């Protein structure tokens, strides 16, 4: 894979993240840049960061695929902030741009940032990535096993891996992500499950969800995070197009259907119920963190979820 990598200089290494604290993920965030090269079709980061001046400077849109923007010096800033912040806590690496994406790997940013955080007392780290390359850091994580929570986003059961590969072009194959998480469990590392997004017709049926939840329990996941696909922006259109181009007509139609508000709302309602039922049967409902914004839900669907919202984190 050829890498088109642009560089930027971020203003800080560690930021307070009230949104991610509300999600129960972390109090603080570290990000290694502004754009990841995993090129997930459904990604909403472009919409969040579209006004950043770097995109004007390089003459590219934040919504385009095929390039990355990273800060090669971010670990120095993380080390400074980790040392000088008086209030410390749980920090997520990363919240928007993957620290083990191909461009970040060019500079070793994931390991450097992780090492900088763990060098200072009082910090614990939640790793979230879609790349199996995080396995290279297991030696470092093992030395600080009580202070690191490892999560690799698993967006479908392995049998749907080929479908997800066309949607998450440059992320590690699902089977590789699963293998690395299972290895982490064998090494006694702390793990959590991240099923996000759970696309319709790929990770939304009760059969698919049961497979994912049973796997999460098998790897000793301390928490199970789940989320529906975000309907905002062009993510659903790009996902639908990628699936259709690859010949996955049924899945493309399912994604197209949830572009309509009523269908999306019903999909979310059913997804919540299926995830709750599966976690109750195969795990512990106390572990579930189903992240859900109420906006976009039809009143009747929202009410039905609210009537039994065990494990739902309203945002």
Give the helix/strand layout.
Layout: E1 5-7, E2 15-16, H1 18-22, E3 28-30, E4 33-35, H2 45-49, H3 53-58, E5 68-70, H4 74-84, E6 90-93, H5 102-107, H6 109-118, E7 124-129, H7 138-143, E8 148-152, H8 161-167, H9 174-186, E9 190-191, E10 193-195, H10 206-218, E11 224-227, H11 235-245, H12 249-257, H13 261-282, E12 288-292, H14 299-307, E13 312-314
Helix pairs in contact: 4-6, 10-13, 11-12, 13-14
Strand count, sense and barrel status of the largest sheet are: 6 strands, mixed
Mean pLDDT: 95
Strand order of the largest sheet: 2-3-6-7-8-9
Task: Tell me the total number of β-strands.
Answer: 13
Radius of gyration: 19 Å
Question: What string, H for helix and E for strand, traces the elements in order?
Answer: EEHEEHHEHEHHEHEHHEEHEHHHEHE
Explain the overall architecture.
The protein contains 14 helices and 13 strands. The chain is of the alpha/beta class. The chain has a 6-stranded mixed β-sheet. A 4-stranded parallel β-sheet has the order 10-11-12-13, with helices on one face. The longest helix is centred in the last third of the chain and has 22 residues, at 261-282. The relative contact order is 0.11.
């Amino acid at each position: 894979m050829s890498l088109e990598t642009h560089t930027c200089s971020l203003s800080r290494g560690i930021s307070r993240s009230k949104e991610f604290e509300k999600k129960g993920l972390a109090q603080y965030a570290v990000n290694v840049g502004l754009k990841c090269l995993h090129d997930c079709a459904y990604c909403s980061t472009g919409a969040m960061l579209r006004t950043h001046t770097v995109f004007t400077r390089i003459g590219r849109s934040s919504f385009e695929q095929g390039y990355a923007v990273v800060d090669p010096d971010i670990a120095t800033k993380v080390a400074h902030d980790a040392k000088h912040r008086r209030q410390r806590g749980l920090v997520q690496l990363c919240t928007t741009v993957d620290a083990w994406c191909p461009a970040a790997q060019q500079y070793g940013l994931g390991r450097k940032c992780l090492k900088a955080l763990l060098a200072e007392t009082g910090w614990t780290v939640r790793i979230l990535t879609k790349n199996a390359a995080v396995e290279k850091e297991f030696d470092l994580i093992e030395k600080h096993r009580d202070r690191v929570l490892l999560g690799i986003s698993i967006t479908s059961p392995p049998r749907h891996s080929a479908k997800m590969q066309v949607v998450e072009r440059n992320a590690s194959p699902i089977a590789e992500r699963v293998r690395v998480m299972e290895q982490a469990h064998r090494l006694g590392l702390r793990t959590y499950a991240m099923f996000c997004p759970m696309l319709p017709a790929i990770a939304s049926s009760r059969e698919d969800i049961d497979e994912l939840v049973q796997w999460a329990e098998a790897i000793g996941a301390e928490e199970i995070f789940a989320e529906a696909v975000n309907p905002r922006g062009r993510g659903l259109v790009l996902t639908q197009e990628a699936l259709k181009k690859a010949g996955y007509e049924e899945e493309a139609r399912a994604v197209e259907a949830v572009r309509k508000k009523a269908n999306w709302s019903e999909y979310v309602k059913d997804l919540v119920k299926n995830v709750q039922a599966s976690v109750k049967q195969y795990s512990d409902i106390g572990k579930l963190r189903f992240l859900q914004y109420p906006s976009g839900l039809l009143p009747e669907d929202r009410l039905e979820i609210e009537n039994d919202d065990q494990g739902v984190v309203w945002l």
